[in-house]
Amino acid sequence: MESLIYDRLDVAEQPECPLCGSIHVLGKMRIYAGSIPEMYGKAQKELVRHELKGTSWINVCQCQNCFLIFFEPKISGSPEFYKSLQSFEWYYQKDKAEFEMAGKWIPPNARILEVGCGAGWFASRLAAPRYTGLEYSESAADKARSHGLDVRTQSMQEHALANPSAYQIIYAFQVLEHISNPGSFIAACLDCLEPGGLLIYGVPNNDSYMRFIQNDRLNLPPHHITRWPDRTLESIPRIFPVSLVSIEHEVLSDIHLRTCVGTMIKRRLDLLFGREETIVDRSLGGRLLNRCAHVLAGCIATLLNDAVFRPRGHTVIAIYRKKIPVKVEPNVANGFFL
């Protein structure tokens, strides 16, 4: 992968990390923005082209302080874009790996806030009596309300202003990678969380096979704006007043098995032919190798039917505990503070 210093990237000024604010940012590669709409079907191609209007190149950058990978410029999808994706059944899945992974951390009677609750499938599964959900999409929020859930179409920042320290558990699954200001988002979550409360985030696992998938339209702007290696999740306690409780990885699921195997085969073929590592490859050679990898994956995937032999899968969750402020009592007798 080509490494570029920031002033050789297609940006007007040095970008800042949207998580920690550091200016120590390394440019990794550039993507031609015009190639992204071509990855979508006919019904969405023009919509995505409009989302990226005025952008010629998108830069892939990595913060050298917290290791977050982000796209610059930070183009987040419009409500119309997300509404178009919701027409597909697979977009809001009724069951996800993080539901089971995170469920064990959530007591039944806790005051819970779910950010990006979608159609409310996880909340319905929890049957939590003191639950509040936030959802960007009005149509998804309506579906969640039809399940009897208290769901509001507010931003996290708006909700935090009116609900300081209101919750014992706050969780967000597949949300952080969609927003252009994750630092502000996490700070708002912590404003809403009581001291000692748990903060749970689920994101796509960038330390898995996913980092090598090429032409993955849903892992590119305007859908995803950031990518989260474990090193970034481990860095959050250096930025915010939390302690890391646990980082847990999904075992590769059946639904992603063939994609994983095909991605790894394509990666080896690229290395064999001396092809540059990239996250977008629309060339004829790349398409031919992708086809070969897909065919071979169908044969090899059966060897991984036993979950014991499977690598890490699509999702990683990180659990944090908000720190409890330490009270400093004055030592009146000695005239100084302990």
Question: What does this protein look like?
Answer:
The structure is a single chain. This protein is an alpha/beta fold and 338 residues long. The chain folds into three domains: 4-76, no CATH class; 77-252 and 316-338, Rossmann fold, CATH 3.40.50.150; 256-310, no CATH class. It is 30% helix and 23% strand. The chain contains ten helices and 14 strands. It has helices at 42-51, 79-85, 97-103, 121-126, 138-145, 156-162, 182-192, 230-239, 254-272, 284-300, and strands at 4-5, 25-32, 57-63, 69-72, 112-115, 131-134, 151-152, 167-173, 193-204, 226-227, 242-251, 312-322, 330-331, 336-337. The strands form three sheets. Strands 7-6-5-8-9-12-11 form a seven-stranded mixed beta sheet, sandwiched between helices. It has a five-stranded antiparallel beta sheet with strand order 1-2-3-4-10, with no helix packed on it. The protein has a two-stranded antiparallel sheet with strand order 13-14. A hairpin with a 4-residue loop joins strand 13 (330-331) and strand 14. Helix 6 (156-162) packs parallel to helix 7 (182-192). The longest helix has 19 residues, at 254-272. It starts with a strand and ends with a strand. Mean pLDDT is 87; it is low at 1-8.
Radius of gyration, taken over Cα atoms and rounded to an integer in Å: 21 Å
| Stretches with pLDDT under 50, minimum 5 residues | 1-8
* SS-based class: alpha/beta
Q: Helix count, per DSSP?
A: 10
**How confident is the prediction overall: mean pLDDT?**
87
The CATH topology annotation of the largest domain reads as Rossmann fold
Strand neighbour order, sheet with most strands:
7-6-5-8-9-12-11
CATH class of the largest domain: Alpha Beta
- Helical amount among residues, as a percent range? 25-40%
- Tell me the CATH architecture of the largest domain: 3-Layer(aba) Sandwich
CATH homolog superfamily of the largest domain: Vaccinia Virus protein VP39
| Overall number of strands | 14
Total domain count: 3
Cα(first) to Cα(last) distance is 53 Å
Report the major sheet.
7 strands, mixed
Order of helices and strands: EEHEEHHEHEHEHEHEEHEHHEEE
Which range does the strand content fall in? 15-25%
Shape: globular
